[in-house]
Specification:
The protein is of the alpha/beta class. The chain has seven helices and eight strands; from the N terminus they run βαβαβαβαβαββαβα. It binds manganese (II) ion (MN) (2 copies). One manganese (II) ion binds next to loops.
Length: about 260
């Protein structure tokens, strides 16, 4: 069983807010009468999925423990989790729940940005930092980043320190080179896409992937997928809800792949 959770939180965004409104809009796009619930592997979105609604979160730092607790409850019940963000800072408390259970985990992060800053503008829990916080605390976790095109010296230093494997956009990888073993968690920041495919994100970073390129990589992953998140949809930047449809597509295809890869 997969639990779908909305995480309406964007107070850790460095540039602009908006992603807190994303979960309900992505849900609407999933069920939009303009499309249907078919997934590309022949399945139907909704099978083996229960929608847990949106988390009720406080504004202060306690929101992180609230997220972790909600995910822990799902894992305790034997469910996989599929979360709709929220900004990317929510990946840290989500993954904290997985890491605390001692699961061996290989995280695949789709993103234009490494999100490895030790701090950004004095905020150690910024959406630019979640994977630094996670790997500090759980150095045994493995992280592969795909689509990066903003690597700078401080983040490269952190990537080296934590042993992060980085596939920059200029070295766009074939699925076969990922060569990942064991259970996988997929963290999908929508700004991995070229802004022409997904204008509804806070950070327009040109030169990114197409929707199909991301789907091809997701479909190529044969490992068990124990959880996933789709983050950083910002409706305030979207055009005609196009990016909400893209996020909805990813939610449907991730769910299908999570069910298929047992
Ligand atoms: Mn990110
Ligand atoms: Mn990003």
């Amino acid at each position: 069983m997969i639990s779908l959770l909305g995480i309406p939180y964007d107070a850790s965004s460095s540039f602009m807010q908006g992603p807190a409104q994303a979960p309900d809009l992505v849900r609407s796009a999933i069920y939009s009468p303009s499309s249907n619930l078919a997934t590309e592997n022949g399945g139907q979105f909704g099978d083996h999925i229960q929608d847990r609604g949106n988390l009720a979160l406080d504004d202060g730092p306690e929101h992180r423990e609230q997220i972790t607790k909600a995910i822990e409850d799902e894992l305790e019940a034997g469910h996989k989790t599929l979360c709709i963000g929220g900004d990317h800072s929510v990946a840290y408390p989500i993954l904290m729940a997985y890491a605390r259970r001692g699961m061996p985990l290989h995280i695949i992060q789709f993103d234009a940005h490494p999100d490895l800053y030790d701090d950004l503008d004095g905020d150690r829990y910024s959406h630019a930092c979640p994977f630094a916080r996670l790997l500090e605390e759980f150095p045994d976790l493995e992280l592969t980043q795909i689509g990066i095109r903003t690597m700078n010296a401080p983040c490269q230093e952190q990537a080296d320190r934590f042993g992060v494997r980085v596939f920059e956009m200029r070295d766009f990888p074939a699925a076969s080179v990922l060569n990942i073993t064991g259970p996988v968690y997929i963290s999908l920041d929508l700004d991995v896409l070229d802004p022409s495919f997904a204008p509804g994100v806070s950070h327009h970073e040109p030169g990114g992937m197409s929707v199909r390129e991301v789907l091809r990589l997701i479909h190529s992953i044969k490992n068990p997928i124990v959880g996933a998140d789709v983050v950083e949809y910002n409706p305030l930047r979207d055009v005609n809800g196009m990016t909400a449809m893209v996020a909805a597509k990813f939610v449907k295809e991730l769910a299908a792949q999570m069910i298929e890869n047992v």
